[in-house]
Amino acid sequence: MKTLIQFISEKQADFPFATGEFTRLLNDIGIAAKLVNREVNKAGLADINGYFGQQNVQGEDQKKLDVFANDCFLTAMRHGGMVCAVASEENDELYTYDNAFSQKGKYVVAMDPLDGSSNIEVNVPIGTIFSIYRRKSESGPGTVEDLLQPGNRQIAAGYIIYGSSTMLVYTTGHGVNGFTLDPSVGLFLLSHPEMTIPEGGNIYSINEANYIYFHEGVKQFIKFCQQDDPATLRPYTTRYIGSLVSDFHRNLIRGGIYIYPGTLKNPNGKLRLLYECNPIAFLAEQAGGKASTGYERILDIQPESLHQRVPFFVGTRHMVEKAEEFMRKNA
Ligand code: P6P
């Protein structure tokens, strides 16, 4: 089986001006992922499971693994020298490197180092999500403007899911490929080439506890999912893990839609545009699916702030389009 680094090297030709730096960056992300995987897999044993005693910018208690994962990826990208700035869920401000080597880096990264971390102590799969852009500024420390680019400017995006097996799934705009970590040799091996979201799909993922605060269009879509599907004579199935990477990964393989909509209480929903919605949307579109706010394409949104939230509908194209139809009818 082909290793991640062999695959990336072969695909380097996809980048007309590739100088090997991008290949090195993806490889560095893979190395950090292995370090995080090692700690995630023994979280219950080590004292790492407890809260770190701080709160991240979202006001969420930071678990030690959140902090460990954030440090792992920041360090990996520092040593590589390809990245001049990182927007992370764990850091309020933009993280810029304080050495001239990194400040020459051509790329900037937006990441959620450990999404769904509230699931760690109940052993539910969690994930790292990353999004990579070319910097717009000429040199020196990266700037917020380097990160506030629409998702259609991403040059790569992906996630690592720390589950029953650990997988790295990414795209550079030439399809989606999945690599499974073989812990016996410490290598990511190509296990899911050219991933596509199945055309069919009868799974919907949404936290229905928020139902009374949903937009009427969302309520109508849920009711639609609960009717017998003429094709199967059965209603859709609901699956909600509470971990975006896990819910999206299942829908990528089996088909389905994940929705975190705006509500009366939180009109922009919960998920962050830069390091959750944009990278997942890039993967979804590259796999033949769709991603929108219920009204507009996620990848066309011009970001206004690093931790901006947007409503998120993502997955099998016809399911997203059906949900959008209900949103338009009930606007
Ligand atoms: P709720 C995890 O905190 C996360 O950002 C996503 O991974 C997940 O899908 C969502 O929030 C769960 O949110 O409000 O349903 O608990």
TrEMBL record:
Substrate binds at D115, G116, S117, S118, N207, Y240, K270. InterPro entries: FBPase_C_dom, FBPase_class-1, FBPase_N, FBPtase, Fructose_bisphosphatase_AS. Its EC number is 3.1.3.11. The keyword Phosphoprotein does not apply. Pathway: Carbohydrate biosynthesis; Calvin cycle. The keyword Magnesium applies. Keywords: Carbohydrate metabolism, Cytoplasm, Hydrolase, Magnesium, Metal-binding. One of its GO terms (cellular component) is cytosol. GO terms for molecular function: fructose 1,6-bisphosphate 1-phosphatase activity; magnesium ion binding. Pfam families: FBPase (PF00316), FBPase_C (PF18913). GO terms for biological process: fructose 1,6-bisphosphate metabolic process; fructose 6-phosphate metabolic process; fructose metabolic process; gluconeogenesis; sucrose biosynthetic process. Its cofactor is Mg(2+). NCBIfam families: PRK09293.1-1, PRK09293.1-3. Homotetramer. It is found in: Cytoplasm. Residues 3-193 form the Fructose-1-6-bisphosphatase class I N-terminal domain. Residues 197-327 form the Fructose-1-6-bisphosphatase class 1 C-terminal domain. Mg(2+) 1 binds at E89, D112, L114. CDD domains: FBPase. It comes from Lentimicrobium saccharophilum. This is Fructose-1,6-bisphosphatase class 1. Binds 2 magnesium ions per subunit.
